[in-house]
Batch of 2 targets.
Target 1
Amino acid sequence: MAQPLPPATIAAFAAIVGKDHVFFDDADQLSYQDKFAIDDALHHPAGAVAPATVEQVQAIVRVSAERGLSLWPISRGKNLGYGGSAPLLAGSVVLDMSRMKKIDYDEANGTVLLEPGVGFYDLYDFLKSRGMKHWLSVPGNSWGSVVGNALDRGVGYTPYGEHAARICGIEAVMADGLVVRTGMGALDGAPTWQLYRFGFGPSWDQMFVQSNFGIVTKMGLWLMPAPESLMGIDLEFDRPEDLGPLIDAIAPLRREGLLQQSPTIGNWLRAAAVVTTRDQWTDKPGALADDVIAAIRKKFNVGWWGVSLRLYGRESVNKAAYAVLEQAMGALKPMAMRPTSWKAGEPMEASGWTGTPLTMPMQNANWHGGRGGHVGFSPILPQSGAAAMAQFQRTYARYKEFGMDYQASFAFGERHLINVNAVLINKDDPALMGRVDPFLKQLIADAKAQGYGEYRTHLDYMDAVASTYDFNKGALWQINRKVKDALDPNGVIAPGKSGIWPTRKAGGRA
Ligand code: ADP
């Protein structure tokens, strides 16, 4: 457990938010810790305080600054695999903004202004009650917050799947309590806050993403107009080496914009890890053997790799684009090619493709049974079949060497790939747990040797990943530290997030 806070400090928080919204006993500490952490003790919070308004956030920041405390802001704290609701620095106070749930919807322009507590299910229900004129983009774990996910650069399945790229205007409370609005929001009363992303002068929305420079209290987001038609193909490929040609076939379609959504190529474990557990397949330790992989593939009728491609918009346009997709994919000779189509008015499948919130993929945390979880390793690669194949071979060999079951995907962005690897864990298996940290460190080092860096990481690896971004002796981190020192020299807000520490707290865990 973390050191308890002095009763007077807890009373000061309670005076701001009410006694029902301060959480500082042992059970509270446990409920805010990271359930998936390799070592929970590193991230035990002192407790949590849950404001309902921006003014309360400001007051909490002031109390924390006066008393030398660090806050760890979370929106809904479902960032599982990256730290969940837990702070990087043990003893921090979690600032839980899940009570702040306002939604402002501009239906004519297709934008929302959201408070951090709005979950994907909340926004989905809200849009449904207004006739679903706009669709969401949801991540694989839609339990969390729309704002929190965009702030950690989460991704989804539709053309709006790069969530951080759809942010338009932020309101944030700074470490000195100042409230700022970015972009057009800096112009008091501007009706264009959610319409023009850049404002006048430097554009600072992205400064609050994956950072600790401020506490985001409102975020503008663009929503996708509900399409008239959705068409696509689900494909399966038989051999590991089919990955390279598949990437080289999809990449130009993605770059020219024929394909506007970002497909994800995933391996054979994706279904099995969600609807079965490992002991149903084998009792042997170490990476799954080829005969087990073959049995899994047979049962779920899947390839070594599978991918789903989707087209959104006008039906006439989709039909023309579909013909191009079909030809490009057919040329690759997939083992299965299943077309799918939907038109407005028809019953809609509940899936990530239709922006319906889902939590099913999280079930893979139960693959090993016990106190399960997963930790991500996600380097950014160029959109090159050869580069992806080499990365796959290197990583898969490491999975075997460390005795881990391979669950991986290659997710397209507009110009890049994210190679998302889930490392499935069981905290009740000490032998497995003993391998996880050396394995992840090895993967980070292997990627760095190729010039690849991760796009997002667990609390435990933020410093390690930051240190791989090392051009000119880590000049970028010197800048980040200078900004942190200027805005928050005492580290009131999330010290250590993304490897950014103020000088006075440097070495906190750096
Ligand atoms: P989700 O519930 O969508 O998974 P989280 O609330 O867990 O999102 O947020 C993910 C991460 O983003 C947090 O660990 C924190 O570092 C950061 N974060 C979340 N909300 C805020 C916020 N309102 N202001 C600043 N940083 C935030």
Target 2
Amino acid sequence: SEKFKGVIVAMNSCYDAEGRVSPAAVKKLTRFLIDKGVNGLYVGGSTGEGLLQSVEERKLVLEAAIEASAGEVPIIAHVGALSTQDGIELAVHAEKAGAAALSAVAPFYYGYSEEAVGRHWSAIADSADLPFIIYHIPATTGFSLTKGLLKQLLANPKFIGIKTTTASTYELQQFKAMGGESFLMFNGPDEQYLAGRIMGADAGIGGTYGAMPELFVQLEKQYSAGRIEAARQVQFRINDIITDMLAVPIYAALKELVRRRGVDCGDVRAPLPKLSAAHAEQIDALHAKIELAVR
Ligand code: NAY
């Protein structure tokens, strides 16, 4: 589908000073990102802290993002949850709210079989009339999508693609080959956006995009124009910034950097680590680097 192309920001969730979801701040962030030219938003994923929120809070965040997007870009709702029941409730809500697609991580904690994960994803996908993007992120869920399970899932046309968050672009290419040209691949690691695109990703979904949307928009523009060397230079510049982000608590850093760009989304939710005074210099340097790069 032409709908899901390019730069899709895994956006932060926004809280007020008391830590409650702030629909107003979510809307502000949504506008900030869309006005920078991104191609879509992914709500409630890893960066979006969806798994640290109640079902009701997740609905609030999604509704605010969809409302502010005003139909300008597609909004993908991450509805992954520990229980199939919660996933279904969120999926049904996402469809009503106007999301363009669903996505979900594998269920985790108990250590499920491929069969159980397949049933979970299928039940969620079948509960709404929306396309479904598998969120393959074995490092955090402990579950790794196999070609065998993918083959079974592909029998259901609801499964339109995979967000592949592994270091292997080979794996990405192999999944794409199984699904065929119209089966969408979403690059997970932001530091490999260009590599992912070259190996067959149709788009990227990433959290660090939020602090420097201009750079990813620029990277995508260079790549789609066939200017690989220019694209490489943008990716290298991005990676210099991401490397510094990875040296501090990344989700908290991302929120602080987004705040410095004008949108206060509050703190990350516990138990995600917060920034401390010890990180101040690194954050200042990061902010300066981003300002210089997006100028
Ligand atoms: C999501 O759901 O938030 C994402 O798609 C973001 C993917 C991020 N990966 C994780 C595990 O959070 O943006 C990346 C990642 O933070 C970045 O590549 C730095 O490694």
